[in-house]
């Protein structure tokens, strides 16, 4: 059997259709996207960049001049948070949830030395932010609230519309990191009501190195990268046209039908894995990203599970401390109030287009064997 | 660059030697805790006359290097006398595995510590302590530095979970800053006892919780 890659939440294989589309923009259309008064290759490049932008804008209901391409989700998050902070004259409070991606958490924390106060919005056991807490703590000194659309590790989808409601009352700006949701969960920026929204290309079988930031007209934000007047004078630098074209193509391929197909595979494995004794689902059961599955196997440690599964041709990851470079357990599971032990036993299976239903029984069987093997040697089995 | 583990680590991880429990062991010891993500328990069967380790088994809750270092440690110790086995260092265990990534060295320390503590427990209970110093507060404190506070992942001395230690007539009283109803209370109590009870002159260990 071929290797079963179930780490699509980290990154995905570029779809061959996307790849084919992109190549043209490296060896045929290679000009820079310059003004309409330029040479033919430049105009062709500009038109293809704008066509890609149109496709994404239409899909997210974004208006003219409100979508800036970036090098990915991390840059878009940096741009949103730091850009808003450095444009603010008075407000000094930034609220972020504890389950954010590091590019949000660390961007926010980097502002503390510039006099900003960064406060963590608590989340419940499923990772959903505490709206009551937010309502009480958001005030007219609050500059920005940044809460992700859906979580990359446990898949929980946040109540963004409710957050916007509270933020509007006090005039705070709302950013949401939709890097993992983009293409997987329908998004309408108008309906959502956010001011800033991050997207990325490589979690939907598009290329790495491309992402974007939706900036609602009138949002006070500082130019991110100095250079030329590219991207509505928000981000200097030659545009990544193959990337933009690839992201747009990948986005087009994420049809409702495609998402449902992936969701049903996820649901199938979820059911099977949860039939293993002392196994728990992490993240919200109801409000969940369609391609994410995260479970904790009690009494055992995730790195051992991951290595054993890799040897059996299955690629997954864990929130265990032993797995991380920092030797810290997943900050997301910890923010959700889970114990270290719970985080150590967590394993994420994240799906993509190229997974096959037929592989999933193998994944389940191998997981069950590995879990049993490790439990047999665990001093915790039988649990104190 | 492949996976940062040597072939030997992977081999011991996939086929660990001496896994399991020994019923009625002559000694056992646990190092680490679920809170740190690493835990090893070692069981010993020791020949009373020759003081040779006849059988040794381990249980592990941990990553690949945790399992591999415990496995190699049992291999190194099996058949040795307890005096010889006591001298095994974590460096020897790591070397025998063809080295460990720097962030995983603590796993070797943990496995070798578990072996040493198990032997020390045996010596305490079999009158083999050469220098029969009576147990005092310092000794108790030293031993408790190996017990992990499940709430913080720090040892119980550093985390200030242990508030007071009193040693009198072979009775060790440990006052802890935790309520009896706490979800980890039972856990803490048994781990503190397991760590102190083997000392040769300790008759009883009392763990006193906060009044709720």
UniProtKB/TrEMBL annotation, chain B:
Transmembrane spans: none
* Domain NIF system FeS cluster assembly NifU N-terminal residue range list: 5-125
* InterPro entries referenced in this protein's UniProt entry, alphabetically: FSCA_dom_sf (IPR034904), MIP18-like (IPR002744), NIF_FeS_clus_asmbl_NifU_N (IPR002871)
Example GO molecular function: iron-sulfur cluster binding
- Domain of life according to the entry: Bacteria
Q: Name one Pfam family in it.
A: NifU_N
Domain MIP18 family-like span(s) in chain numbering: 138-207
Question: Which biological processes are named by the entry's GO terms?
Answer: iron-sulfur cluster assembly
This chain's protein is named DUF59 domain-containing protein
Q: Which organism is it from?
A: candidate division WOR-3 bacterium
Lineage start: Bacteria, Bacteria division WOR-3
């Amino acid at each position: 059997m071929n290797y079963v890659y179930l780490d699509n939440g980290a990154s995905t294989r570029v779809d061959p259709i996307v790849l084919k589309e992109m190549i043209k923009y490296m060896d045929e259309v290679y000009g820079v996207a310059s003004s309409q008064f330029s040479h033919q290759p430049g105009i062709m490049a500009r038109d293809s960049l704008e066509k890609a932008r149109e496709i994404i804008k239409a899909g997210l209901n974004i208006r003219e001049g409100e979508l800036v391409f970036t090098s990915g989700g991390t840059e878009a998050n940096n741009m949103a948070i730091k850009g808003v902070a450095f444009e603010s004259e008075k407000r000094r409070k930034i609220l972020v949830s504890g389950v954010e991606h590091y590019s949000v958490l660390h961007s926010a924390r980097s502002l503390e030395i510039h006099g900003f106060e960064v406060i963590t919005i608590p989340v419940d056991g499923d990772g959903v932010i505490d709206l009551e807490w937010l309502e009480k703590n958001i005030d007219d000194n609050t500059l920005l609230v940044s809460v992700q659309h859906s979580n990359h590790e446990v898949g929980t989808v946040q109540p963004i519309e409710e957050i916007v409601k509270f933020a509007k009352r006090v005039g705070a700006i709302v950013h949401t990191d939709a890097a993992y949701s983009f293409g997987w969960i329908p998004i309408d920026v108008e309906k959502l009501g956010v001011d800033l929204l991050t997207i990325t290309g490589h979690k939907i079988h598009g290329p790495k190195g491309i992402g974007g930031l939706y900036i609602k007209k009138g949002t006070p934000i500082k130019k991110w990268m100095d250079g030329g007047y590219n991207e509505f004078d928000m981000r200097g630098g030659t545009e990544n046209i193959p990337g933009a074209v690839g992201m747009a193509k990948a986005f087009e391929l994420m049809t409702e039908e495609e998402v449902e197909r992936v969701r049903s595979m996820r649901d199938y494995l979820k059911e099977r894995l949860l039939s293993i004794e002392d196994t728990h689902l992490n993240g919200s059961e109801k409000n969940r990203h369609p391609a994410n599955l995260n479970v904790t196997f009690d009494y055992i440690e995730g790195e051992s599970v991951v290595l054993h599964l890799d040897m059996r041709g299955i690629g997954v990851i864990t929130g265990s401390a032993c797995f991380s470079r920092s030797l810290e357990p997943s900050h997301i599971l910890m923010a959700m109030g889970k114990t270290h032990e719970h985080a150590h036993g967590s394993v994420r299976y994240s799906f993509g287009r190229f997974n096959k239903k037929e592989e999933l029984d193998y994944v389940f069987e191998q997981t069950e064997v590995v879990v049993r093997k490790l439990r047999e040697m665990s001093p915790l089995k039988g649990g104190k | 660059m492949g996976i940062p583990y040597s072939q030997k680590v992977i081999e011991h991880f996939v086929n660990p030697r001496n896994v399991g429990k020994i019923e009625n062991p002559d000694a056992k010891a646990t190092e680490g805790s679920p809170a740190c993500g690493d835990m090893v328990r070692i069981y010993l069967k020791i020949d009373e006359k020759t003081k040779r380790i006849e059988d040794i088994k381990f249980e592990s809750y941990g990553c690949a290097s945790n399992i591999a270092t415990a496995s190699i440690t049992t291999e190194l110790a099996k058949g040795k006398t307890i005096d010889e086995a006591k001298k095994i260092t974590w460096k020897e265990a790591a070397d025998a595995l063809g080295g460990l990534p720097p962030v995983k060295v603590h796993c070797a320390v943990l496995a070798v510590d578990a072996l040493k503590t198990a032997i020390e427990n045996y010596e305490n209970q079999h009158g083999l302590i050469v220098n029969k110093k009576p147990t005092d507060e310092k000794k108790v404190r030293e031993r408790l530095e190996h017990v992990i506070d499940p709430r913080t992942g720090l040892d119980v001395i550093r985390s200030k979970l242990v508030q007071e230690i009193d040693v009198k007539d072979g009775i060790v009283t440990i006052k802890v800053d935790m309520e009896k109803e706490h979800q980890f209370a039972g856990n803490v109590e048994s781990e503190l006892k397991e760590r102190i009870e083997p000392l040769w002159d300790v008759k009883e260990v009392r763990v006193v919780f906060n009044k709720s």
